[in-house]
Specification:
The protein contains 15 helices and 22 strands. It is an alpha+beta fold. About 40% of the residues are buried.
Amino acid sequence: MTTRIVSPQAICIAAELVSRHPPIAVDELDDVLTPEVLHSCNGKPLERADLQALAALIDPKRLDQADLFAVLANPDQMLLQSEQRMVRKALDLPESDPSDLVLNFNTVPFKWERQIAYITIRPPAVKNIKPPLLFLTGLHHKSAVYLQTLMELARREGRTIVTMDLPGMGGSRLPGNASVYAGDLTDAAVAVIKAAIPEGTTFDLMAHSLGTIPARELYEMGSVARRRLGLTVLIAPVPAQREQNMGYLLDAGFAKEATARNFINGGDLPPMRPELFFQQHDTSSRKWLLQVTGKERYSTSLWSILSQFLAVDRRPLTAVVGVDHELRLVFPVEDRLIPIDIDSWVDRRGIYFVPNADHSFMAGPSAAVEEQLATLQAALNDPLSAATPRFQEGNAYRTIRRASLFGAAGTIDQQVGLFGIGAARLGLFPAGLLGIDAEAGISSMFGTAAEMAAHVGLGLQPLDLPIWIGGGARGAVTTDYSTVDLYFDAYTRAEIRFREVLGAGVMVSLLPIFRDPAEPTHKRSVLIYFGLAL
């Protein structure tokens, strides 16, 4: 015999609190239990122990959406119809199933003894020829904000759609101090695939924005635990360096704001900005989206952001789309968060443009308009039997990033002089946050030197100026007309890079010169240089 987890009164009050507030600390529950809240639940006696037990279902310290979703997904709770409507409303879900669809709410265990929440949308007549579709959501966008569009897509496609809340959002809330890494996103998707898709099944994948980061990983994997990935559709994908070379860029202001807030100690990414995410939505939809996304807290740190950017950078797709007929990219034409140079992409097979669509065109209280849904269906169903040629531009990173044309240098304790230096630098992640450069060149200062160098650096962008700060080591063979020396040095360097074309900077070096291995000579120098990227 099953028993209820918590009382109806606790469920009612938790629904009221979750619908009005971001996560609430358990020790602050008494502060928010106002007469208004208690009155909204008919003023019946409340057993605070029941409310605290509900709050402790997922995160022992907080009452939030994850706790309420756990109640909704637990069959042992035996929710009455009125209670289910109440909980669904608090989670911004339809209060009841449409007459032609069945919604199932589920959770799967995840690391930190937490859960990943997912919703299965099942039409009554599933076409056997259509595999199930897994949908991965975007930043601050839990499944609920896409649900109307996904339900309409399920109707039209006659296929089951599984949509999951990425870790840290909606019903997949993580502990308050847990940062989300690229590997967490992929692990969560794999957990849902194993739970929701039968073994031996082929499934299709669709992802939006942040969800395209784990989607790229799944695309590379090709299969998950004896479940084969068929079609992959990426909507407004987070751009890799190779895509940026083709005119597809993340808004610089948003990128700066996101990284600045999390540079050292981490924290929540900034809230939605209507002018970047849903400027094409009508007033009522924007208001609803701001209210729903305003509850979300996507907790990151500098290193977790780096992990996500680098995960994207390792898997650029420009050379593959149009060649692999199972990969499709969908770009909203009016996307301001990740704008695109359409002329560079328009003739490619496997690429679709959604007219009159902003970044979050799939999100909102009503389904996407007809032409937007038609574009999504085209991306899911076009055969793409003929491949198109690979991109001529952007197939590889720009290998020579900067050539130093001239400079001036002075050593603090030995000699001052002017010299010229020519160098070419190969950057493994030249425009990313984290980079490794290798450099070779010839310089002269009362002699000549042939050098090889490598350094690791960190890219920042305060005040919209790209700054590179790094350190590394150099080995060189020098001659001053009479002797040949081999030396190694450790140095730090700061550069200001202007649009990755012109460069100017200062390099400070501490050089232990090993003329005599037992008695290295230390030379400190300052180099001021200018450069031009090729």
